[in-house]
Write a structure and sequence with these properties.
The complex is a heterodimer of chains A (491) and B (1014).
Chain A lengths: L1 H26 L16 H13 L5 H9 L4 E4 L7 H7 L8 H22 L9 H23 L23 H18 L12 H14 L3 H13 L23 E5 L19 H6 L1 E2 L8 E2 L2 E4 L1 H5 L7 H5 E3 H8 L12 E3 L22 E5 H14 L4 H16 L10 H15 L6 H7 L3 H4 L15 H7 L10
Parallel strand pairs in A: 3-4
Antiparallel strand pairs in A: 1-5, 2-8, 6-7
Helix pairs in contact in A: 2-5, 2-6, 5-6, 6-7, 7-8, 8-9, 8-14, 9-14, 14-15, 14-16, 15-16
Chain B lengths: L1 H14 L4 E10 L10 E5 L5 E5 L5 E8 L3 E5 L6 E4 L6 E5 L9 E3 L4 E3 L7 E5 H7 L15 E5 L8 E5 L11 E4 L2 E2 L10 E7 L15 E6 L6 E16 L8 H14 L18 H5 L3 E13 L3 E14 L3 E20 L2 E14 L10 H7 L29 H6 L2 E20 L2 E20 L15 E24 L2 E24 L25 E21 L3 E12 L8 E12 L12 E15 L16 E4 L2 E4 L14 E14 L4 E13 L2 E2 L20 E2 L1 E17 L4 E11 L1 E7 L5 E4 L10 E4 L6 E4 L2 E4 L3 H6 L15 E3 L14 E4 L5 E11 L2 E11 L2 E4 L45 E3 L2 E14 L8 E15 L18 E2 L6 E11 L1
Parallel strand pairs in B: 1-7, 13-16, 47-51
Antiparallel strand pairs in B: 1-4, 2-3, 2-5, 5-6, 8-9, 10-15, 11-12, 13-14, 15-16, 17-18, 17-52, 18-19, 19-20, 20-21, 21-22, 22-23, 23-24, 24-25, 25-26, 26-27, 27-28, 28-29, 29-32, 30-31, 32-33, 33-36, 34-35, 36-37, 36-38, 37-45, 39-40, 40-41, 41-44, 42-43, 45-46, 46-49, 47-48, 49-50, 50-52
The chains are: A mainly alpha (491), B mainly beta (1014).
């Protein structure tokens, strides 16, 4: 009897044993259709694909651009009501605190860009192929771009070098002093200037001149005027750029990536987007936010009426300046002229940021307010000329060349030489800085220009010197750092 | 021993061949001598044929041609089986014991069964009678209020919406759903037809440890109906028709109240009055009344079952059709099922069981919860607008600042919603039990689930006048998803007795694999902009160059387990069991592939002791103790690998280019959650088994809590498109509580019976550790752009609400000036604003002043169930109460021109007017930040089901055929102080649950139905 039982049980035991033997085969399966991030960079395409990812976060800088205006004296926050995007409203009124989801976006998104660029550099030596230097140089350009945004907004930030930040770094890595951050940016841009192609391999990618322009700006922010002047004049002397004849034309679709474009953040209307992930949009989110509230009429599409220019900004232009109506839309006059209708939002001024409001005619897939294709003209040749002028003048290098660059910009604006500036010294500085405001109205530079030249306190209502030069590090980040990081002064 | 006697008797019977006669008799209830109607009486013959009858209205039966010495078998639902050896023609009297008095009932416990009397774990049972009485549309609802320690919440009242089951509280902020085993294989509850279920067993403590790494959230074992041996074919048909309506309407402002409030609000903000002349507006449009309707539902099911002495069978089919109380057929749910259960004794020692269920589900849905849902629009649309304009078109909600770009005409929204979801699913099992020698059974079983679903959504090209729902290009999105899994069990059970020692040993292996894929595609430019043409085959438009209109995913997850269990008892008095399970799973990182889960249970039947001298009132007393370690592996797949699944799309040369980017951050050390479960319990039967009490005290500690997408510093790049934070074993949570269940059954007379059931569960939840550096994790959302309102934090209940505490309203300027500045919250306070408490006493109100405002975990839940029968009438009522939980009111859009709940009529209007509700204004205030003003007590008592029926006896089958007709109402009454639609609704999220985004309320259902048994 027992024997029979044993015989009958035997197959079961064998099955069980067989099961044990197979465990390794059964459990050690490869995940389906996935690429391991630590086992990548095996071919040129891998580097190129990772580079696209590093560019992707440029599109998230829309909020930096918007807030660079809203924080300044150029615009009011606007929107629907006093509480519409409360983070924007508070920055406009200079009552922002460390609890601000929009500032947190800037912090998170710019660091995401830093990490994506560093990911490529972390594996820089893994695979060799012709043209790798170009890709590495682009990665370093992009990392410098994101670092520069971070240092402008938040001052000292943690640095990791050619490696991605890991969980836990926030509690151990210090916020590097501003000088160190700038040194890292200069090193990256120096490499980019050396190694980037003079002509970008594709429209939308960085060229050597884009790196020169950014480096010039970085020097200017540190008031290292002679280095700024040198690198900017190097760019000018390449002769690669010229001012577009028609200022208004720059801001239309046909003006994108034009003769004046040194570096441009590319946007597209080809893919949908949602409020759940604004940084995922391939469109320029700022354009919908800036758009005309409840608009119905020709040429433009509607939007959320944020970032509305104040009357003082509109009136800052001289008579005959073609930039006035190209930069700022007088909606009342426009409605009268065309029969368009519009709504009145919060802090309605009657003006809109015409450079970056929605145009009719794009395909506007998905949420049309989030997928406008308007490129952000990040660095225009006009900006380069004005930066060179400023460096030459403030660095007491050559007021003559400074005037020359300044007047190039003015002649395009007025279409004549009657409005040339002939001042020198401090008077010329004022003219140059004022020209920056007029030329770059609505492009996100104003707040930082005021801060770096020490002129914010008088110009921006509510601006507290010693506090508002920097924005607060997000409340959540201070918490994560567990005492490692201190909040910026006076927040 | 008993079997041997029976066997001998059977032998005797067959030798006594030739002495056949007609037997008559009466079958009675052993307790009181009542006749039992419709008892199956069968005589199995040696050749496998069956002869049988059914007792009549007076319990009598008559069976011809019975050989002397034959054994008649008596079976009756709710009673123990009985056999009687026939020596004479009678009349004989057969007494049957009711199951209520029976501890002999066999309970499924996972890889085996156990007599109820021998159970050493905390186990709850729900039988088919309860399911029949409650008439749940989905089976999960039958567990609410009937099983202590089990809490069921509905995600939405919309037809077909999901339900969440939590056994003994929320232990993890990952997957909290219990494991569901149907007839032995891993499956899920949400597609089952409730009337196919015979019993549901809930394993709540370490007893579930035989399921190892998947048992930590408790285990629900479902046994589907099968036929009985030697039973004549039985047909049962159940049908009902129902009418549904909303269980609650919110008190909104009418047009005049609305206009006047707006005027006041605008004036306070220094703006022009929007309604300078508010007279003549009347009450305006009641959007809620327009949105909600009365919706029909119907259900039919038929079951045929029976068996011979070697075969049992049960077939059933069902059809359920439910329309939504919002949108009617636009939110309809349809379910058809077909089931076949066959049991065949291939040989005396070889038994085959086959069970297959086919399910078809068709569900259409409206945008349900949150900003943009139909209800949200119904609540926020101005009552001053008409539903349709003079030309019969839907009125557009104006695109004005005060109404925002999200509020649209809810009826237009319903009309413009087009979607369809169909699911075809087949699940079942084949099992073979082989008994090679006495006491030894080998079981091989394959269970499987396979389903294919198709989804389609049509976005019609339309304009709401500049709202976010405008669609500039028509589009159809389609997907098809295939999910499969199989469970392969091989195990042996050995039962042995030596002296008074009884031993059952079970050991074996389980292989589980799940795999599947999904395909997604979109097409643009739907012909004629019409649902009838909305299909990829016709919608030929594509995204511009570089855009991707397709997507897919695939998965393959596996688990290999070995388990062993020994159950020992001495004399049926001292009971011990020990279990060990070893699991290897693809869910975990290579560093932690294999896990071991041990557990122990013990029981002592005190009432069997000599010293236990019952005074006659105690019939049974058992003490149980259990402790064990279980696991939870319900986490993201491949969480230990860093994959390039991020989004990397940019524009080069004017066209979209797609690259590769890091997705979710990896955690190579990922491992299972560990649940340590302790339970001590008592089972008591009193007063002739009339009163049954079960009491349990439990402590469940969950360690190595798996936290998905754990918030981490933004410097790690987790906010990049398609990226996310890693899943980390980063916490520990403890649930403690007491469960008690009382059942009292009494028969006052032959015609009048009563049974009462009451149970309650107390729950105390505490987070013991959060190892992420900060000691807390945030989640949930309140308003727009605000700090997270929910937290998991050491020393607090998981998912508690964290915000500002208020202390009334500033009545005048001197009160404002005397108080710390609130400017950091968004605006300086003025009289009429909420006064926030300076918790940390630093003289200024900042986010550091936030504190505990309540939590969504009920302190006590209870069920009270009543059952009366008088002559042909029966009456049933089930009530459920959930006390001590809070809910956050988050369905109000903070815009100036939206409609409001009428509590704003009691707002602050001047000094001394109120200390509760702040002023209204269009200017910036801090009143909208998350504070206890938005946290409400959501305790409630709900009459889940009340039912009155009458049973007729039909002339067939000796009067055992019955027809019952009944009227019933579900969710007739809910008592609560909560202002929102449904205090019972919840998203089910551990952190961020209990926040009300405007839940689709559970419907009140009036039903009329019949149960026919032939």
């Amino acid at each position: 009897m027992k024997k029979i039982i044993a015989i009958r049980i035997l197959p079961v035991l064998i099955l069980l044993l067989a099961g044990t033997a197979c465990e390794k085969d059964f459990i050690d399966r490869a995940p389906l259709y996935s690429i391991d991030s630590e086992n990548y960079f095996n071919a040129e395409d891998d580097y190129y694909n990772a580079l696209i990812a590093a560019y992707d976060l440029l599109q998230a800088t829309y909020v930096n651009v918007m807030l660079g205006e809203i924080a300044s004296d150029n615009t009011l926050c606007g929107g629907e009501s006093a509480t519409d995007v409360i983070g924007f409203q508070q920055i406009d009124d200079m009552v922002h605190t460390p609890v601000n989801s929009n500032l947190r976006d800037i912090w998170n998104w710019m660091f995401a860009g830093v990490n994506r660029a560093s990911y490529i550099l972390e594996f820089a030596d893994k695979t060799d192929f012709p043209g790798k230097t170009q890709i590495l140089a682009e990665a370093r350009f992009l990392r410098a771009y994101y670092h520069f945004e971070l240092v402008k907004w938040f001052g000292p930030i943690p640095l990791k070098g050619d490696a991605r930040f890991e969980v836990g770094d926030e509690a151990s890595l210090p916020r590097a002093p501003v000088e160190e951050v700038y040194a890292a940016i200069e090193a990256d841009l120096g490499y980019a200037v050396e190694n980037l192609s003079e002509n970008a391999p594709q429209v939308g990618r960085a060229s050597a001149n884009a790196a020169r322009a950014l480096l010039g700006k970085v020097y200017l922010y540190q008031e290292r005027f002679s280095e700024a002047a040198t690198i900017l004049e190097n760019l000018i002397n390449t002769g690669q750029y010229q001012l577009a004849d028609d200022f208004a034309g720059i801001w239309e679709m046909s003006g994108e990536n034009g003769a004046e474009s040194v570096f441009e953040v590319q946007y597209s209307d080809a893919e949908g987007a949602g409020f759940g992930c604004l940084q995922c949009s391939e469109g320029n989110v700022a354009v919908g936010f800036n758009g005309i509230r409840n608009y119905s009429g020709p040429e433009y599409d509607g939007g959320f009426s944020f970032n509305v220019p104040v009357e003082e900004a509109y009136n800052a232009y001289e008579v005959g300046d073609s930039r006035q109506d190209a930069s700022i839309l007088d909606i009342e006059a426009w409605a009268e002229e065309t029969g368009a209708t519009y709504g009145v939002g919060y802090e309605h001024t009657g003006y809109y940021n015409r450079k970056y409001i929605a145009r009719k005619g794009d395909s506007n897939i998905g949420d049309q307010n989030l997928t406008n294709p308007n490129n952000y003209r990040a660095i225009r040749y006009a900006d380069v000329l004005l930066m060179a002028a400023e460096a030459l003048n403030r660095g007491q290098i050559s007021d003559e060349r400074a005037r020359q660059y300044l007047n190039q910009v003015r002649r395009r604006a007025f279409g004549d030489m009657d409005h040339d500036i002939s001042a020198s010294g401090a008077a010329l500085t004022d003219f140059i800085l004022n020209e920056r405001r007029l030329e770059l109205m609505g492009e996100g530079h104003r707040f930082f220009d005021l801060v770096r030249t020490g002129r914010a306190a008088g110009a921006i209502p509510g601006f507290v010197p010693g506090k508002h030069e920097l924005f607060p590090v997000p409340f959540e980040e201070i918490q994560f750092s567990n005492g490692n990081w201190q909040q910026n002064p006076n927040y | 021993m008993k079997q041997i006697t029976l066997f001998a008797l059977l032998l005797l019977a067959s030798t006594a061949w030739g002495q056949n006669f007609t037997v008559t008799g009466v079958v009675q209830d052993a307790a009181n001598g009542d006749p039992l109607i419709g008892v199956n009486v069968v005589l199995p013959a040696a050749d496998g044929t069956v002869q049988g009858t059914i007792t009549d209205f007076e319990g009598r039966f008559e069976l011809a041609d019975v050989p002397k010495g034959a054994s008649l078998q008596f079976s009756y639902i709710g009673y123990q089986r009985k056999e009687a050896v026939i020596e004479t023609g009678g009349p004989i009297i057969v007494e049957m014991l009711a199951d209520a008095e029976s501890l002999e009932e066999v309970v499924v416990i996972g890889y085996g069964t156990q007599r109820k009397r021998d159970l050493t774990g905390a186990v709850s049972l729900v039988g088919s009678e309860t399911i029949e009485e409650l008439k749940p549309i989905k089976i999960e609802q039958a567990l609410q209020g009937t099983t202590p320690g089990v809490n069921v919440t509905q995600q939405s009242g919309s037809p077909g919406a999901g339900l969440d089951i939590r056994i003994r509280g929320v232990s993890t902020n990952g997957q909290n759903a219990p494991l569901v085993i149907i007839d032995g294989y891993q499956s899920d509850l949400n597609t089952l037809n409730p009337s196919d279920i015979e019993t549901i067993t809930v394993l709540k403590d370490a007893q579930a440890a035989v399921y190892g790494t998947i048992g930590a959230n408790g285990v629900i074992l479902v046994t589907t109906k099968s036929g009985r041996k030697n039973q004549a074919p039985q047909v049962s048909y159940n049908a009902y028709l129902g009418l549904q309506e909303s269980s609650r309407l919110l008190p909104l402002l009418n047009a005049t109240e609305y206009a006047l409030l707006l005027n006041e609000s605008y004036a306070a903000g220094g703006q022009d009055l929007p309604y300078p002349n508010a007279s003549g507006l009347g009450t305006g449009t009641d959007w809620q009344a327009e949105v909600f309707g009365t919706a029909p539902m119907s259900s039919h099911d038929v079951t045929i079952s029976g068996g011979s002495d070697r075969v049992t069978y049960s077939f059933s089919g069902s059809h359920l059709d439910q329309e939504g109380i919002i949108g009617g057929r636009k939110s309809a749910f349809r379910r058809n099922t077909a089931r076949l259960n066959l049991g065949i004794d291939l040989a005396d020692n070889l038994k085959l069981q086959v069970n297959n269920i086919y399910t078809y589900i068709d569900r259409d849905a409206l945008n349900e919860s949150g900003l943009g849902s139909v209800l949200f629009n119904g609540l926020n649309a101005p009552p001053t607008l008409q539903v349709r304009d003079d030309s019969g078109e839907f009125t557009l909600v104006p695109n004005t600042p005060g109404l925002g770009i999200e509020v649209i005409n809810p009826l237009a929204q319903i009309a413009n919603t087009f979607n369809d979801y169909d699911l075809n699913k087949l699940n079942g099992q084949v099992s073979l039990d082989y008994t090679p020698a006495e006491g030894l059974t080998l079981t091989g079983r394959v269970g499987y689930n396979t389903s294919v679903s198709r989804g389609k959504t049509f976005s019609k090209e339309l304009s709401y006048g500049g709202k976010v729902f405008d669609v500039t290009r028509s589009r159809v999105d389609q997907n098809t998803i295939n999910d499969n899994n199989y469970t392969l069990d091989l195990y042996a059970t050995y039962v042995s007795a030596f002296g008074r020692n009884n031993l059952t040993f079970t050991g074996g292996t389980t292989v589980f694999k799940e795999f599947g894929r999904g395909l997604f595609a979109s097409g643009f430019d739907v012909p004629n902009n019409d649902w009838a043409f909305a299909d990829l085959s016709l919608a030929l438009g594509t995204s511009p160059t570089g855009g991707r209109d397709v997507g897919s995913y695939a998965y393959d997850e596996r688990r290999l387990s070995y388990f062993a269990r020994a159950q020992y008892d001495y004399d049926g008095k001292y009971l011990l069991s020990a279990m060990l399970r070893r699991d290897a799973s693809t869910k975990f990182g290579p560093e932690n592939r294999v896990a071991y889960f041990p557990s122990f249970t013990a029981g002592w039947i005190i009432s069997d002791e000599g010293f236990f001298n019952p005074d006659g009132n105690f019939n049974f007393l058992k003490l149980r103790v259990s402790y064990g370690v279980l696991g939870n592996d319900q986490i993201v797949n491949n969480g230990y690998i860093g994959t390039l699944s991020g989004e990397a799309t940019y524009v080069f040369g004017g066209a979209l280019v797609n690259g590769t980017a890091i997705g979710v951050l990896p955690n190579p050390a990922l491992q299972w959650e560990e649940a340590k479960k302790f339970d001590v319990g008592l089972d008591v039967d009193l007063f002739d088994y009339k009163l049954n009490i079960t009491a349990d005290y439990f402590i469940n500690t969950r360690d190595n809590l798996l936290i998905s997408n754990i918030p981490v510093s933004g410097i790690t790049g987790t906010s990049a498109p398609g990226a996310a934070s890693p899943t980390v074993n980063a916490g520990s949570v403890q649930n403690r509580g007491l469960e008690m269940a009382f059942t009292y059954k009494k028969r006052f007379s032959d015609d009048f019976r009563m049974s009462l059931g009451y149970n309650f569960t107390t729950l105390s939840n505490e987070v013991l550790s959060v190892n992420n550096g900060t000691g807390f994790i945030e989640g949930g959302a309140f308003g727009v752009g605000q700090l997270a309102p929910s937290r998991m934090e050491v020393g607090q209940p998981i998912g508690y609400f964290y915000g500002y505490q208020t202390d009334g309203i500033f009545q005048n300027l001197s009160e404002v000036e005397a108080h710390p500045s609130q400017a950091a919250l968004g605006a300086e306070a003025v009289p009429g604003d909420l006064r926030f408490v300076d918790i940390n006493g630093d003289g200024v109100i900042t986010p550091d002043d936030r504190t505990y405002l309540g939590d969504p975990i009920p302190e006590v839940t209870m069920g009270f169930n009543v059952n009366f029968s008088f002559k042909g009438f029966d009456f049933t009522a089930y009530t459920f109460a959930s006390l001590g939980q809070e809910m956050v009111r988050n369905y109000e859009r903070s815009l100036s021109d939206v409609n409001r709940l009428n509590y704003v009529l009691d707002r602050w209007t001047g000094e001394g007017s109120t200390n509760e509700v702040p002023r209204v204004t269009t200017a910036a205030t801090s009143n909208n930040v998350f504070s206890d003003f938005y946290v409400e007590d959501a305790s409630f008592v709900r009459l889940q089901n009340v039912q009155l029926g009458y049973t007729f006896n039909l002339p067939w089958r000796n009067g055992a055929s019955t027809l019952r007709v009944y009227g019933s109402a579900n969710n007739l009454l809910t008592l609560t102080r909560y202002q929102g639609y449904d205090p019972a609704a919840s998203s089910g999220a551990p952190i961020g649950g209990g926040i009300d985004f405007g839940f689709y309320p559970i419907p009140k259902i009036y039903m009329f139905g019949l149960n026919l048994n032939l």
